[in-house]
Amino acid sequence: MGAWSEKIDVGKVPENGTNFDVIVVGGGPGGSAAASYHSMNGQKVLLLEKEIWPRDKICGDAVGGKSLRHVKELGVKTMIEATPHFRVDSILMSSSNGTEVKIELPKEAFEKMEAGYSLPRIQFDYMMFKRATEILHENGGYVMQGFSVTGVKIETEGSVQKIIGIDGKTKDGELMTFSAPLTIGAGGYNCPVAKTITETVYEEPMRDIEHYCGAYREYWNNVKGCEGDSGAIEIHFIDEVNPGYFWIFPVNDGTVNVGIGMVISEQRKQVGIKKSLKKMQKDVIANHPLFKGRFENANLVEGSERGWQLPFGSPRKDAPSYQPRRSAMAGAMCIGDAASLVDPFSGEGIGNALVSAKLTSEIFDKNIHSDGFSEESANKYMKDLWDKLGPELTNSYRLQQVIKRKWLLNWFMKKASKKESIREMMTEMIAGKEASGGVYSKWFVIKALLLP
Ligand SMILES: Cc1cc2nc3c(=O)[nH]c(=O)nc-3n(C[C@H](O)[C@H](O)[C@H](O)COP(=O)(O)OP(=O)(O)OC[C@H]3O[C@@H](n4cnc5c(N)ncnc54)[C@H](O)[C@@H]3O)c2cc1C
Fold first, then answer.
1. Neighbours of 408 (CB within 10 A)
2. Which of 58, 129, 174, 244 has the most CB atoms less than 10 A away?
3. CB within 8 A of 69, min separation 6: which ones?
């Protein structure tokens, strides 16, 4: 273990009942980034995290180019580079009939150390949270860890309901309450702020198993073909996990993150809830002709076997209000997994957590919103968020639908192995720093796939 195993000193506890400009619920990458951005804008911020660092987060551990822009802006990039990490230069994909496609990330981005990294989340999240703590302390903010938000406070003014703060408790059981014109929900896929907005206030669904993915990861050492500190991360669309994928992501010092993920509704339809992802992964590692040799001398890191869920950002059919689902209301905005923004094809969620974190800081202004963050501003956030991320999330959803059918997947991979324009599209999807319109247009995708 390195510096990230040390305790983080979060400083003084604020007085019970304090009023802030912004309260952030959840100190994952999204929450840490949001707290930092608002604090850098001069807001008095309170960042609340229920776990105590160092804390793990179940993930594939790949931090893409989209994230690195924010990681750099927040001053975390040099911290990462001073710790062991794997530099990703390409993504190797394979389909069930054995066709392989290698998506090279831009050479220039790799040389400038902006292509992407993979490193354990226990390490990445620690640095994001630690940096947020420093930024908040420099700007008069407060940070609490081991503080669980248990309730969201709502005020009703005429016909409008407004979130005005939170209730929660410390690890010692002390009950505390805080208020602010803006509360940011960054508590992941079970975020209490997101639950309040969707289920309690708007009576819209929060969890949708057609768009939620179950995933399971383990750490292994000594996996053949994963040596060194730079190279490819691997995504394998194999029969045993269709639709979904089996991944092999080297992370640092010979450790490899190995996992499996599948949309929950498909998992239930195809293999039943009896066959767990853990069992599926065990079978693949022990018996699959492409992998069993590679794991022959490998050893599992005991205790690393854990599962979690990914809330995808795929467009919902007949969504009751905003796509992919409602993520804001008067007094609150949700970001990252709390806003269901994970890419439905690649499973990448850190990048969109950071993009949405920054967007909240561009929309909230304490001078304009001192009496409360208005419903109109909340609606603007949801519109801007979907304008920014909707095209790429929709495109990724189309690709997810393609890989669902085995013959179509094999056809697509064969096309991709031969056609530069498809590989370029996939490079942009995976390595793009920000959403880019042209590549995500329906016609581009159809042309790329159908024209010779
Ligand atoms: C198996 C798996 C593999 C994945 N692989 C990748 C990958 O390789 N690359 C990638 O980019 N993404 C990947 N993802 C998605 C990625 O992990 C998430 O999208 C990302 O963590 C979202 O960040 P976040 O800050 O929104 O939420 P989280 O990282 O979930 O952070 C939420 C934080 O809120 C805290 N919290 C929750 N409830 C409360 C409460 N009541 N009070 C206070 N605090 C609370 C939690 O403790 C946590 O620290 C993967 C996900 C899974 C499950």
1. 13
2. 129
3. 114, 433, 434
Residues 319-346: tens digit of each pLDDT: 999 999 999 999 999 999 999 999 998 8
Q: Is the Cβ atom of 410 under 6 angstroms away from ligand 1?
A: no
Question: Distance between CA atoms of 182 and 360, rounded to whole angstroms?
Answer: 10
3-state secondary structure of 54: coil
Average pLDDT, the chain: 90
Cis peptide before 29 (omega within 30 of 0): no
The secondary element (H helix, E strand) that includes residue 157 is strand 147-157
Residues near 120 by Cβ (< 8 Å), separated by ≥ 6? Answer: 56, 61, 219, 251, 252, 255, 257
Residue the block writes with tokens 């007949």: 318
SS3 category, 179? strand
Which residues have CB under 8 Å from 375's CB, separation 6+? 160, 162, 329, 330
Q: How far is the CA of 57 from the centre of ligand 1 (A)?
A: 6
Give the Cα separation of 160 and 326 in Å (integer): 16
Average pLDDT, stretch 230-254? Answer: 90
- Distance (Å, rounded) from C-alpha 349 to C-alpha 215? 13
Question: What structural domains does the chain harbor?
Answer: 3-75+121-208+313-392 (3.50.50.60), 89-116+210-308 (3.30.9.10), 404-450 (no CATH)
Q: Are 381 and 333 in contact (CB under 8 A)?
A: yes
Burial class of 191 by CB neighbour count within 10 A (0 to 12, 13 to 18, 19+): buried
Tokens representing 364 are 């909230």
Structure tokens at 323: 């796509």
Residue 208, phi then psi, degrees to nearest 5: -135, 110
Q: Is the CB of 238 under 6 A from ligand 1?
A: no
User: Ligand 1 center to residue 447 CA distance, Å?
Assistant: 35
**C-alpha to C-alpha distance for 219 and 305, rounded to whole angstroms:** 7
The model carries a pTM of: 0.94
pLDDT of 7 > 80? The answer is yes
Question: In a 10 Å sphere around its CB, with 0-12 CB exposed, 13-18 middle and 19+ buried, how is residue 270 labelled?
Answer: middle
The DSSP code for 326 is: -
DSSP assignment letter at 5: G
DSSP structure string for 211-259: SEEEEEEEEEE--TT--SSEEEEEEEE-GGG-SEEEEEEEEETTEEEEE
In terms of Cα–Cα distance, which of 130, 201, 122 is closest to 378? Answer: 201
Residue 447 burial class via C-beta count within 10 angstroms: exposed 0-12, middle 13-18, buried 19 and up: exposed
Measuring from atom 5 of ligand 1, which residue has the nearest CA?
A: 60
